Amino acid sequence: MPSQIVSLVVNGEHREFIAAPGATLLACLRESLGLTAAKRGCAQGACGSCTVLVDGRPEASCLVAVETVAGGSVRTLEGVATGGDLDEVQSAFVDCFATQCGFCTSGMIMVAEALLDRNPDPSEEDVIEAISGNVCRCTGYRPIVQAVLEAAARRREEAVTR
Amino acid sequence: MAKLRGRGYASVNYPTGMNLGGDPSQALVHATTTGTFVISLSSVDLGQGIKTIAAQCAAETLGLPMENILVDTADTDTGPHCMGTFASRGTHRVGNAVIMAAAEARGVMLEVAAEELEVDAADLETDGTGYIAVKGAQDKRVHITDLALAAHFKHGRTISGRGIYLKEPSVPVPETGEMDPDSCQAHACTVAVVEVDDETGVVEVLELFNAYEIGRALNPAMATQQVEGGAWMGLSHALFETTEPYYPARDHGPRDFAGYLMPGPADLPVQHSLLLERPSANGPYGAKGIGEMTANAPIPAIANAIFDACGVRLTSMPFTPERVLRGLDALKTEETC
């Protein structure tokens, strides 16, 4: 089976690249498009560090064959900030000390984005459920849960003032 | 069948640094043309925050804002020497080296400022805002941006400094065994509150109380995060993690992350953490090392809490439901005998 040209909308931009048969979405993002925020942790869908949004849903991009999402819309951490301005989730992660080594951070932020997109007022249990597929070895999770709740509060406040 | 609650505690004394063939770390500091002080280190930051601590030590010593400090740990081949960020030595060794380097750079900075302002260097002071000013005459001052430019293009001076901290090796006295293996010791105590389900053997850690005496806490928020993140890792070792559940047999060992158990965000205890500050005489601004010890005390504290809850004394980690149930069975057998 030959390589094929795959097109995706990545962070709002049309991108085309050549993908080898069976290439994962993660490998294409990192190697073909140079988007290295999504990390290759376990490469078996168990750690969540490769999480990106595919048509708004959080997916372990290490398990997704890129052909299966051709033509779809992908959002990665690189598409979250507006220029140099961090969004509410990113700034809450900074303010709540929710990062240490940073390896899980991009995946955590993407699942948080997906959660807040569908539920602007999540409970602590909702946040725990949302991040439960993502492993963190540094923080003990508590600051991450707090950061997501804080981001939700900030986003609701923004919505009111807008 | 019941959920049995218990409480246990454990303490740890933890040495800062190591004692092999000497324990040095170096730092080099230089000012760019625009007054950014680059701290060159080979001390790797893997999330513990050494870059932040190094920047704080440099800013405090130079008397400049944090924004004027850039920590560069780019290349351990070409950078100044560091033994590495391990043995809870980073803050202590690297912090001290940075302070020494920054103090030398500060001396040059004040000399150049004295030339620029045509005053005596001893009459100059910094206030942490970026200005170097004449004591008692605050309008006679120069900003570090202008001063660094002048140093390069007018005075032909390099504002820089060298620093090293060396803990020399300590050989034990043969007769007494006396030696000085570490630079200082941090101390901590953890109290764990657990619930043991005597039907399933599952142990749940409900609360952890952490008290840490770590010298001066240079960055209390980061230190607290280290304490609580480390406690999570301790809890994880205590209850979940193993590659050989039936050591030394390799049976049933996990082969990948899917089978390697760790606590998730729903398994977390409530943590209460307290920092006690008794500055160390040889630490950078009084700090001691805090790294690895944070995972230590929670483990025996949880073991003691399990004993308090149900009488089972576990001596092998992790404290799995199977081990708890086998312990409970053994207790019942003892009773009936």
Automatic annotation (TrEMBL), chain A:
<feature type="domain" description="2Fe-2S ferredoxin-type">
    <location>
        <begin position="4"/>
        <end position="80"/>
    </location>
</feature>
<protein>
    <submittedName>
        <fullName>Carbon-monoxide dehydrogenase small subunit</fullName>
    </submittedName>
</protein>
<dbReference type="InterPro" id="IPR002888">
    <property type="entry name" value="2Fe-2S-bd"/>
</dbReference>
<dbReference type="GO" id="GO:0016491">
    <property type="term" value="F:oxidoreductase activity"/>
</dbReference>
<keyword id="KW-0408">Iron</keyword>
<dbReference type="Pfam" id="PF00111">
    <property type="entry name" value="Fer2"/>
</dbReference>
<dbReference type="InterPro" id="IPR001041">
    <property type="entry name" value="2Fe-2S_ferredoxin-type"/>
</dbReference>
<keyword id="KW-0560">Oxidoreductase</keyword>
<dbReference type="GO" id="GO:0051537">
    <property type="term" value="F:2 iron, 2 sulfur cluster binding"/>
</dbReference>
<keyword id="KW-0411">Iron-sulfur</keyword>
<dbReference type="InterPro" id="IPR036010">
    <property type="entry name" value="2Fe-2S_ferredoxin-like_sf"/>
</dbReference>
<dbReference type="Pfam" id="PF01799">
    <property type="entry name" value="Fer2_2"/>
</dbReference>
<keyword id="KW-0001">2Fe-2S</keyword>
<dbReference type="InterPro" id="IPR051452">
    <property type="entry name" value="Diverse_Oxidoreductases"/>
</dbReference>
<keyword id="KW-0479">Metal-binding</keyword>
<dbReference type="GO" id="GO:0046872">
    <property type="term" value="F:metal ion binding"/>
</dbReference>
<dbReference type="InterPro" id="IPR006058">
    <property type="entry name" value="2Fe2S_fd_BS"/>
</dbReference>
<dbReference type="InterPro" id="IPR012675">
    <property type="entry name" value="Beta-grasp_dom_sf"/>
</dbReference>
<dbReference type="InterPro" id="IPR036884">
    <property type="entry name" value="2Fe-2S-bd_dom_sf"/>
</dbReference>
Automatic annotation (TrEMBL), chain B:
<protein>
    <submittedName>
        <fullName>Molybdopterin-binding aldehyde dehydrogenase-like protein</fullName>
    </submittedName>
</protein>
<feature type="domain" description="Aldehyde oxidase/xanthine dehydrogenase second molybdopterin binding">
    <location>
        <begin position="3"/>
        <end position="269"/>
    </location>
</feature>
<dbReference type="GO" id="GO:0016491">
    <property type="term" value="F:oxidoreductase activity"/>
</dbReference>
<dbReference type="InterPro" id="IPR052516">
    <property type="entry name" value="N-heterocyclic_Hydroxylase"/>
</dbReference>
<dbReference type="InterPro" id="IPR046867">
    <property type="entry name" value="AldOxase/xan_DH_MoCoBD2"/>
</dbReference>
<dbReference type="Pfam" id="PF20256">
    <property type="entry name" value="MoCoBD_2"/>
</dbReference>
<dbReference type="InterPro" id="IPR037165">
    <property type="entry name" value="AldOxase/xan_DH_Mopterin-bd_sf"/>
</dbReference>
